[in-house]
Specification:
Blueprint: E1 6-10, E2 13-15, E3 17-22, E4 29-34, H1 43-55, E5 61-66, E6 72-76, H2 93-104, H3 119-128, E7 135-140, H4 156-167, E8 169-175, H5 206-211, E9 216-217, H6 221-231, E10 236-240, E11 251-258, E12 270-272, H7 276-281, H8 289-293, E13 303-305, E14 309-311, E15 314-321, E16 329-331, E17 334-346, E18 352-354, E19 359-365, H9 367-376, E20 378-385, E21 392-399, E22 405-411
Parallel strand pairs: 4-5, 4-7, 7-8, 8-9
Antiparallel strand pairs: 1-2, 1-11, 3-10, 5-6, 11-12, 13-15, 14-15, 15-20, 16-17, 17-18, 17-19, 17-21, 21-22
Helix pairs in contact: 1-6, 3-4
Length: 416
């Protein structure tokens, strides 16, 4: 697929697509079951477990339960920071689920919506950011919301949606008409509105719309999990540059489709444009924490490192970055971009320590330099002080514009 194959509208205004890249693997799928929506051994629970058993050996499938007390309980949880990555999943449902089902069965549904407390989902989004590429969050009986909920101003709701977008997590809410009584759409101050109407699918889809997921009614748990897994296997990352007047603090609708032919494309349908002064004031670290602490190599950018050479009180390496993965903006015949670089050293206790501070490299290439970079990549020398003797090293390179990152982790003394 090429940029010319797509057509993108922002509030019905055509915009040029500047960047189109396939997402890397692995693609993680996390399923959350809200016990306030349906209890253990309910029809919904049994359908979820049957589906998880069907896909349990699918790589990177995880399962959490949200208890009535608002705790996010890992049944088969995401890997911890700095853990050794697994290549995929062995069968886990029976082994992991049985010890939890008896104590969980004491919790009966409380008739609350999935909007009563968003903080557990915020932490989950930050942990999912460790995986490269697009991820899926299937939320059974949770994260019910409408687009108007974002119009109340800054809140934990907008913080969560920002975290999901930053981590590239698409949300798949499953619920529609809850089977357990009259559950209303939740507000952001403390739970469901009692006696409210049944929650129809069109009333729960805001998180799906803003993140590029899908919405499912009750009884469609199998479809939600199966399609979330399938959607993660072939995805692209697209970037465009909204004009300055777009940053007005309002919601903007996005429409994307094929320039020719008919095909349904799954993508965010709207975004909340912060005011320009707030966007300019926003402070983000040049290297995302997930790229530093993730047990997985980040592969949005192809990065390799030369064999370290010892110089006086330092190691010298050369970082090679595939320029085709960078967003290089063309202006007046030149190409501008920005790359953040950092080296992390691991001690014998496997703790990552910053052995260099993040270094921001501004790129300004003429046409010949740009063509050469696309053919052979970009090379950046980096000197690493050796105050201690690390066992291994991780080098991180991130595109400042798109936040795409690549890493290379290696034992010292070995050539990549």
């Amino acid at each position: 697929m090429q940029t010319g194959d797509l057509r993108l509208l922002d509030n019905k205004r055509p915009e040029s697509i500047l960047y189109l890249r396939p997402n890397p693997q692995p693609a993680a799928t996390v399923v959350v079951f809200n016990l306030s929506y349906a209890g253990v051994k309910s029809m919904e629970w049994n359908e979820a477990v049957r589906t998880l058993r069907q896909f349990e050996t699918t790589g990177y499938l995880y399962f959490y339960v949200l208890t009535n007390q608002g705790a996010m309980l890992p049944i088969h949880g995401l890997p911890e920071r700095d853990a050794a990555p697994a290549s995929g999943n062995a069968p886990w449902v029976d082994r992991s689920l049985l010890p939890f089902e008896t104590p969980l069965s004491r919790e009966s549904p409380q008739g609350r919506s999935g909007m009563s407390d968003l903080s557990p989902y915020l932490e989950l989004a930050r942990r999912m950011a460790a995986f490269p590429g697009r991820k899926s969050l299937v939320c059974i009986g949770c994260l019910f919301a409408t687009g108007s909920d974002w119009e109340r101003g800054p809140s934990l709701l907008s913080e969560l949606s920002d975290a999901l977008l930053e981590a590239r997590v698409a949300v798949y809410p499953v619920g529609g008409r809850p089977p357990n009584g009259r559950i209303g759409v939740g507000n952001n101050e403390g739970g469901a509105m009692p006696g409210g109407p049944f929650v129809a699918p069109e009333q729960i889809g805001a998180f799906a719309d803003i993140t590029g997921g899908r919405t499912y009614a009750a009884g469609e748990i199998h479809d939600g999990i199966a399609e979330a897994i399938r959607d993660g296997k072939s995805t692209y990352r697209i970037a465009y540059l909204p004009p300055a007047q777009n940053w007005d603090g309002k919601r903007h609708k996005i429409a994307i489709g094929l320039a020719r032919g008919k095909l349904h494309l799954l993508a965010p349908r709207w975004y909340l444009a912060g005011r320009l002064e707030d966007v300019a004031r926003e402070q983000r670290p040049p290297i995302p924490d997930a790229a530093i602490a993730s047990p997985f190599e980040q592969s949005d950018l192809a990065v390799s490192v030369s064999a370290p050479k010892k110089i006086e009180k330092a190691l010298r390496i050369e970082i090679h970055v595939d320029a085709a993965g960078l967003l290089l903006l063309r202006r007046n015949g030149r190409y501008a971009g920005s790359v953040a670089l950092q080296a992390l050293c691991y001690t014998s206790a496997e703790r990552p320590l910053a052995c260099t501070e993040p270094m921001l490299v501004k790129l300004d290439l003429n046409q010949q330099e740009h063509a050469a970079a696309l053919r052979g990549g970009l090379r950046f020398p980096l000197d690493i002080p050796m105050a201690a003797t690390p066992t291994r090293m991780r080098v991180v390179a991130c595109d400042e514009y798109t936040r795409a990152c690549g890493t290379a982790t290696f034992p010292l003394g070995e050539e990549r």
